[in-house]
Each structure stands twice: as C-alpha cells, then as structure tokens.
From TrEMBL, chains A, B:
Residues 41-60 bind DNA. GO terms for molecular function: DNA binding. It holds the Pfam family TetR_N. This is TetR family transcriptional regulator. It comes from Amycolatopsis vastitatis. Residues 18-78 form the HTH tetR-type domain. InterPro entries: Homeodomain-like_sf, HTH_TetR, Tet_transcr_reg_TetR-rel_C_sf, TetR_C.
C-alpha cells in the first residue's frame, strides 16, 4: 500500500478516462467475485481489461484503492437492484418472495455467493481501510428492507407488533448466511430454506386478507 | 503447495510430537481467527508457538495442510461446544435462547465473527482443497439443530407442522449472516436481532404450555 499515491477522483476524469476506469472496475469486480481478492493480481486484471500497467497504476495506484472502488461498484449494483421497480420498495410479502426466488434461481449463488457479502467476509480481517465503506453499504441495504416493512405496517399489511429493524436484520442475515452455507455445500438448499423460513416469519405478522393477496400467515 | 510433502498423521506421532503439533495448531487457529488466513505467515506462527522452521515444516509441510488442520481443529471445538450438556441437545426453546445469549455476549463475535464461518468465507474461493472438510463440518453443525428440533417434536414441544431441516438452516444462516453483519458494523445488534427473530420463528411452532416452560408462541 502506498498511502501517498491517491487515485484520481472519478468525476475529475475525462469521459474517455471515466470509460477506461469503468472497464477496469468491471473486470476487477468479476475477477474478485470469481476468484477472491487475494487470488486476483494486476497481471490478470491488465490482461482481462486490455490495459497497460501504467494505465492501471494511474487509475488505481494501490490495491486498497482498487478494492475500495470495487466495493463501491458492487454496493451500487446491489442497492440499485434492490431499489428497482420490480420489488416495489418491498411493500408486500410477494415482493420479498420475488426477491428470494431471484437469488435461489441465480446459478452463481452457490458458486460464488453474494457479490458484496463474500467480498466483505474475505477482507474484513485485513488491514485494508474499507470498513466504513462496507458498513455504509450494508446499512443502506438493511434500511431498504426495514423501510419496506414499515411501509407494509402503514398500509395495514403487517401487524404493528412486528419490529421492522429486527426483521430486516433477519432477512439480510439469512441471505448472507444462507449464501455462505450454499457455497460451502455446493448446493442452493441452505439459502432456499433460510430465505423461505425468514419470509415465513415475516408472514406470521401479516394482517389477515392483506399482504399482497397471499395466503394470510399462521397468526392471521 | 507441495502436493508430495504430506503432513504426518497425528495418531502416528509420539505423545511429545502430538503435544507440539497441538501447540502449533492452537496458535495457528488464534492467529488466523484474529488476522485471517492471508495475513498469517510462517514467521508469526513460529514465534507465537516457539518452534523452529524445520519443526513447523515437519508437522505442516504446506499452508494447505495447516489450514486443513485448523479447519478440523475449529470444527471440533464448535461441534463439541454445541454438543455439550449445557444445551441438552437443543431439546427446548430455552436451550436455543441460551445458545444465542452466549454468542451475543461473546465480545469477539463482532470483532472476529464465527471462528469456523469467517475462515470458510475467507478461503472458499481459493484453490485450497478444503471444501469437503468444510462441507462436512457445516453439515454436522446443521444436523445438531435439526436433530434437536426433531426431538422437540417427539417430546410434543413443537408442532408436527415445523420443518426441522428448514428451521435448522434458518438458525445456522441467521448465525453466520448475523456474525458477518456484526463484524462489518462493529456492533452486535445485527446478530442479536437475527438470532432473536430466528428463535421467535421457531417459537411460532411451539405447542402451547410446552417448549421448556417458556411463554407459548404466537401461534399457540
């Protein structure tokens, strides 16, 4: 790590520079997602992105600056996906099920896990100064679920007894833990079970006849 | 990795050799738990365990052989802990709560995460040939919860509607995911919420008046 060599701020780059930086990042994210941070080296990245060593060094002078940018890139993708219209801000049990179904059907779930979570787990114990970035990303992710559950309460779909923060932590933990267990087992079953059970639990707070037209929960 | 240099089988060592091997392992496990696999090198380990390079090389000729042994060591510890009398084979909701309380109060939970899970997450994408070992350990761990839930059903404490495998995957996923989120946040709250919500969900299947003398579940 060379603390003195700072990466240029993306917004100060020319549009051609921004495109090169984006191409490097895309390849770095893919290499890291597939092989992990430690097995990804400059030579692989240069070859994959079709750039020279001096270009790579210009945009990302240290591994830390590259890893930080990949975290931002993956966080942006995962948060944008969760905020997409498809999930209607998670205002129903149906949208939670749609979300779970997406990852259960995603073939890379049990091969490489969560793009952001597996990266976080790989580097959280290292000296890389990335904790603030990670904490911020996961907090925003958690808040998407929490806000959705609060919206369900306001819409009368979920009982006021439900604790949106606790349930949001259950959903995100079941997702992250299920992804790890699925990777280790080489089998999607642990993720599928964990997500279905976590959503079943949210459903126990469903108000009868509501919850996006699904069968009311056991408590309904 | 030198595939030809195999580590001596522990049972073929003299008792002094077994003691040295155990001391190396204990220090390796601690270093890896604190700093991660990649930041742990031979020199740190030699110094911590007070051994020479040739001794280390004798017991663990490759990093792979060392990491494999640390996985076995951590798995043995975690499985033994979960099988201890304290948790009475997880035959009640009370024992699940006791288990959760233990990890919520454990100060290293949000510092270094799960001793086995954080190691698995760090190396699952590497070329180290450790997947079978990890899969086996996590399957046994999952089975401890599943068997406990089945026992609760036989004892009439849990409804026959409950799916023990699904609930076991929820408990272990909430634990692993909650540990990761707690580490990232530097705060135990995500783990606490995830475990409490997962156990709340098990409780919705509790048969009224049973379940270890606790208040019956919402469905009871």
């Amino acid at each position: 790590m060379e603390a003195t060599s700072e990466a240029p701020a993306p917004q100060k780059l020319t549009s051609k520079g921004q495109a090169t930086r984006a191409r490097i990042l895309e390849h770095a994210a893919e290499l890291i997602y597939t092989h992990g941070v430690h097995a990804t080296n400059n030579e692989q990245l240069r070859r994959a992105a079709g750039i020279s060593g001096s270009q790579l060094n210009h945009y990302f002078p240290t591994k830390e600056s590259l890893v930080l940018a990949v975290i931002e890139w993956q966080a942006e993708r995962v948060l944008t996906f969760h905020r997409s219209e498809r999930f209607t801000h998670f205002d129903s049990l149906g949208s939670l099920r749609d979300w779970a179904d997406h990852y259960i059907a995603y073939e890379r779930s049990h091969q490489a896990g969560c793009s952001l979570g597996s990266l976080a787990a790989e580097i959280i114990k290292t000296d890389l100064d990335v904790r603030t970035e990670l904490a911020n990303a996961f907090q925003q992710w958690r808040n998407i679920f929490r806000d959705g559950l609060e919206r369900m309460q306001r819409l009368g779909r979920l009982s006021a007894e439900a604790d949106p923060t606790r349930l949001a932590h259950l959903l995100l933990s079941a997702f992250q833990g299920g992804m790890l267990l699925a990777q280790v087992a080489g089998d999607i079953a642990p993720l599928k079970d964990a997500l279905q059970a976590a959503i079943d639990h949210v459903r126990t707070f469903a108000v009868s006849g509501e919850a996006g037209g699904l069968v009311p929960g056991r408590a309904g």
